[in-house]
Design a protein that fits this description.
245 residues; alpha/beta; 6-stranded mixed beta sheet; two-stranded parallel sheet; 8 helices
Length: 245
């Protein structure tokens, strides 16, 4: 991939990686600490500790961040999608959607292309090459998705299974710090809303949106994104003469 992505006619702004990850509205740890011999070990969690949503993150090799897309459990024509999202305070900073299992499917990746990728590509000169790196998750490689990429002049490149921790920028340097910042915001909220209770009320979808928006915009810096493309030994843009290409 190095000679392809480093070709003179390939602008780093149009080299993109996207992946999705689950985020839980209760991020309590599975372990706690207590003295040996204690008969009761208390932990803290929210009432609805299994609720989750999917978060689709994308970055360019130019260190630019695309809008996150959040997929909550529900139906595309249900109350959450048609009514609740309209009043969500973060609807302009995120792209919100619903799916029966709160997961990425064929329809949702097509909507991600139209609502996130296409607006980002508006400044791309017609005919200029563009590339997107995707893992082997099957919905990334359907005929409909391939046809949509072709229509937009984007070449998809497959990251082989077992290699995402080495060669997928989102996994290399973004996913963990991003989720760590989201988890820190959850802990802050938990301490503010139930410092003495073992079980507190459930976090709302809007709170989840707030944690994602603030973590993505503030905590994932341009430097973080830049280094995610440059894992030692597997860098797409290796260091040359002590500097970054």
């Amino acid at each position: 991939m190095r000679p392809i992505l480093s070709a003179p006619n390939m602008e780093q702004r149009w080299i993109i990686n996207m992946d999705q990850t689950p985020i839980y509205l209760s991020m309590h740890p599975n372990r706690t600490l207590e003295l040996v011999g204690a008969t009761t070990v208390n932990g803290r969690r929210t009432h609805d500790n299994g609720s989750r949503f999917s978060c689709c993150l994308a970055v360019s090799a130019k260190s630019e961040k695309l809008k996150p897309r959040l997929i909550f459990k529900g139906t595309p024509t249900g109350r959450i999608a048609t009514r609740e999202f309209r009043t969500n305070h973060y609807r302009d900073r995120l792209v919100l959607a619903c799916q029966e299992s709160a997961w990425q499917d064929r329809n949702n990746i097509l909507l991600w292309i139209d609502r996130v990728l296409v607006p980002y590509l508006q400044e791309k000169v017609t005919g200029a090459p563009a590339a997107i790196l995707l893992d082997e998750f099957r919905v990334h490689w359907t005929e409909e998705v391939g046809a949509r990429f072709q229509a937009l002049g984007i070449t998809p490149y497959r990251i082989p299974g077992g290699c995402t921790g080495l060669a997928q920028p989102i996994n290399v340097g973004i996913g963990k710090p991003f989720k760590d910042h989201v988890r820190a915001k959850w802990w802050e909220w938990l301490d503010e809303n139930g410092p003495d209770a073992s079980i507190v009320r459930s976090a709302t979808r809007e709170l989840g949106c707030q944690w994602v928006a603030e973590s993505w915009e503030t905590n994932i810096t341009q430097e973080t994104v830049q280094h995610s493309w440059r894992k030692t030994g597997f860098s797409y843009f290796p260091e040359v003469d002590g500097g970054i290409v």
